[in-house]
Design a protein that fits this description.
Rossmann fold; 2 domains; 11 helices; 11 strands; alpha/beta
Length: 255
């Protein structure tokens, strides 16, 4: 249940298109619903502007299916992250209306529709290298599923900086940018020096031994001298996509 759905329901009641009893039934599991394996927070979308999302790693296909089915009974988007292809196939066989984004390892149902008219801006997702694309795709799919217009620019790392500079017009048109990089993690600093919009830096675990599974990139991003750069956790494309969506929406939560 998000703000839009609640307003729609109240409008239907005020017009007589929906009886109070029907409205009560719609809200019966609001704000929470107890399942066998989870306690669904249906109020989260209304409270924070972002729906509850399933973290699929270490959950069984049956648990993911049960939770997504519960979320899909409500009006907002339903997403599951870190879902393997094998699990996704099982879940899709049990729950209708789910799309699997293999590169992002995400299942999505009932995504929010991007309304170009009056849309606050564009989110641009950049990946330094091809190896960083899975994390970048997690950010892209998350932001797009939340109803944002998203453009992606991949394989534009600092080893060939001319590739990035060739897309400068798009970078400057973005309301917010998500910049994903492994190795030394230099790309967000470069982008932060080119644009006026907020930059969300995402370190990835890509790199040789002294990269320490993304810690080198994380520390490099945290020590960026470019203003306007914020950093999320290693490989956390989902978190970056949510922050980008909140910034693009223009406020922390619905009015």
């Amino acid at each position: 249940m998000d703000e839009k759905a609640l307003r729609t329901l109240l409008t239907r009641v005020s017009k007589g298109d929906c009886s109070p009893d029907e409205a009560v039934e719609s809200l019966r599991h609001w704000p929470a619903e107890q399942l066998a394996c989870a306690h669904l927070d249906h109020h989260r979308g209304l409270r924070t502007g972002l729906p509850e999302v399933v973290y699929g790693e270490n959950k069984s296909a049956g648990q993911i299916a049960e939770i997504l089915a519960g979320l899909l009974r409500q009006s907002g988007p339903a997403m599951a992250t870190r879902v393997s292809l094998d699990k996704a196939r099982v879940v899709q066989a049990r729950v209708d209306g789910l799309v699997y984004h293999e590169a992002a390892r995400m299942l999505v149902g009932n995504p929010a529709v991007c309304n170009d008219e009056g849309e606050p801006g564009i989110i641009v997702v950049l990946a330094a290298g091809t190896s960083d694309i899975p994390v970048a795709e997690e950010a892209r799919v998350t932001a797009a599923s939340l109803g944002n217009r998203v453009e992606q620019v991949y394989d534009v790392g600092v080893a060939g900086i001319h590739r990035l500079l060739a897309r400068r017009e798009l970078l400057q048109a973005a309301r917010v940018l998500v910049v994903v990089a492994g190795m030394e993690g230099a790309l967000p600093s470069v982008v932060g020096g080119l644009v006026a919009s907020p930059v969300i830096a995402v370190p990835t675990s890509i790199g040789y031994g002294t990269g320490f599974g993304g810690i080198a990139a994380l520390l490099g991003m945290l020590n960026s001298c470019a203003p306007g750069v914020a950093v999320v956790n290693i490989d956390n494309g989902f978190g970056a996509g949510c922050v980008a969506a909140a910034i693009n929406r223009g406020k922390a939560q619905p009015a």
